[in-house]
Design a protein that fits this description.
Helix content is 41%, strand content 25%. The radius of gyration is 39 Å and the shape is elongated. The longest helix has 30 residues. The mean pLDDT is 86. By secondary structure, the chain is α+β, with helices and mostly antiparallel strands. It has 15 helices and 15 strands. Among the domains are: 130 residues, NusA, N-terminal domain (N Utilization Substance Protein A, Chain:P, domain 4, 2-Layer Sandwich); 67 residues, Nucleic acid-binding proteins (OB fold (Dihydrolipoamide Acetyltransferase, E2P)); 68 residues, Orthogonal Bundle (DNA polymerase, domain 1). A hairpin with a 4-residue loop joins β13 and β14. The protein has a 5-stranded antiparallel sheet. Strands 1, 2, 3 and 4 form a 4-stranded mixed sheet that branches.
């Protein structure tokens, strides 16, 4: 058993990189406990572990006496002489004997094995915990081995990593056996072992992908100043060059977009806007809301609020689909953004729209009302305005505002 125990620990030294002295100390502690269980807490003993030779030696030290009162700590001179010891020992001397493992009996040996196995498991848990604690915020590549209702289990170097639903990219499809990249987001201890949470939705994952694909960021020539992201939908990344000769946005996008496309593909076609950072909040907000054109920006720096004024045909661009553009701009700049719409004069619209083309949007009843009151085009309705439209029986203020908004939105879409 001695050699087997040491060999199992030596294997941990080779595979896991555990310190040999630490393991030797554990073996000494386990076998020291074994001696105390058989000979009592006051027994003097010594456990010598040689990891290189694969050997464990256990020594018990007792005082030589004429009459034994405590057999755990004393041995009679008569018994010492009967053993035919080479040394000439006398009463008062210490007698050291080497104990055979078999002498401890099956029960104690089994207990020692159980303690050793428990210690090994604890060491392995600590090794895994420390390994992934060092990898926090770094990308790992693993294989999906189980897809569950609320999370996905990933195998990485024979360790289980958890990709929870809220750390997945929405609508991304995962298949058992496929390789997945993610960052280590959280490592925590539990009774069953370390729990390692990974993420593909975290901003840090996007940052690490930029570092991989764009050497200038990895080398520190270009800094990522801020990231705002709605995973799987859209992201905005503000960058700044430390070298005046290098265009930060151009370097990130790459020739014909090859660099940014590699990141987009990894993120399930997430739309990524790369923006040039500015220390001036107004300039930064304007760039964050691109491609919309703003007429004016009023800032309240103390309250971190901004009021942007834009033509009505630019509002949809500022807001973006489902409001994603303005939400990301607010996250990126740290400013709460309010929009003031300036109506575009009707005469600036290049083409009119026949009301018949808006029948579905307005509804058949409203369309008939307008046509019967001699309004044949969209511009005729807008030019009339709310006051004139109120003269039509069956239209109240709320309905009139709804009609005007529907018609204006059609002009904005045409823009």
């Amino acid at each position: 058993m001695n050699a087997d125990i040491v060999e199992s620990f030596a294997q941990m030294v080779r595979e896991k990189g555990v310190d040999k002295d630490v393991l030797a100390g554990i073996i000494e502690e386990i076998f020291g406990t074994l001696v105390k269980k058989k000979y009592g807490e006051d027994a003097k003993h010594d456990v010598v572990v040689n990891m290189d030779r694969g050997d464990i030696e256990i020594f018990l030290e007792r005082e030589i006496v004429d009459k034994v009162e405590n057999p755990n700590t004393q041995i009679s001179i008569e018994e010492v002489n009967q053993r035919g010891n080479d040394e000439e020992l006398e009463v008062g001397d210490d007698f050291v004997e080497k104990l055979q493992l078999a002498s401890f009996g099956r029960r104690l040996i089994t207990l020692a094995k159980q303690n050793l196995n428990q210690k090994i498991r604890e060491i392995e848990k600590d090794l895994v915990y420390n390994e992934y604690k060092e990898l926090l915020g770094e990308i790992v590549v693993g294989d999906i081995y189980q897809i569950r209702k609320n999370d996905i289990l990933v195998n990485h170097n024979k360790n289980e990593l958890i990709l929870p639903r809220n750390e997945q990219i929405p609508y991304e499809r995962y298949k058992k056996g496929e390789t997945v990249r993610s960052i280590v987001k959280e490592v925590k201890k539990s009774n069953s072992g370390p729990v390692i949470i990974i993420s593909r939705a975290d901003n840090t994952f996007l940052r690490r992908l930029f570092e991989i694909e764009i050497p200038e960021i990895y080398d520190g020539i270009i800094d990522i100043k801020a990231i705002a992201r709605e995973p799987g939908e859209r992201a905005k990344v503000a960058v700044e060059s430390q070298d005046a000769r290098i265009d930060a946005v151009g370097a990130c996008v790459g020739m014909k977009g090859v660099r940014i496309h590699a990141i987009v593909r990894e993120l399930n076609n997430e739309n990524i806007d790369v923006i040039s950072y500015s220390d001036d909040p107004a300039t930064f907000i304007q760039r964050a809301l691109a491609p919309a054109k703003l007429k004016k920006i009023e800032l309240n720096n103390a309250a971190k609020k901004a009021i942007v004024t834009a033509d009505s045909d630019q509002v949809s661009l500022i807001v973006g689909r489902n409001g994603v553009n303005i939400r990301l701009a607010m996250k990126l700049t740290g400013y709460e953004i309010e929009i003031l719409r300036e109506e575009k004069p009707f005469e600036e619209y290049e083409e009119d729209i026949e009301l018949i083309d808006l029948k579905d949007e307005l509804g058949a009843d409203i369309y008939e009302l307008l046509i019967n009151n001699r309004y044949d085009t969209a511009l005729e309705v807008l030019t009339a305005g709310p006051e004139k439209l109120k003269e039509i029986e069956g239209l109240d203020e709320a309905k009139i505002n709804e009609i005007i908004d529907i018609i204006k939105s059609q002009f904005e879409e045409e823009e």
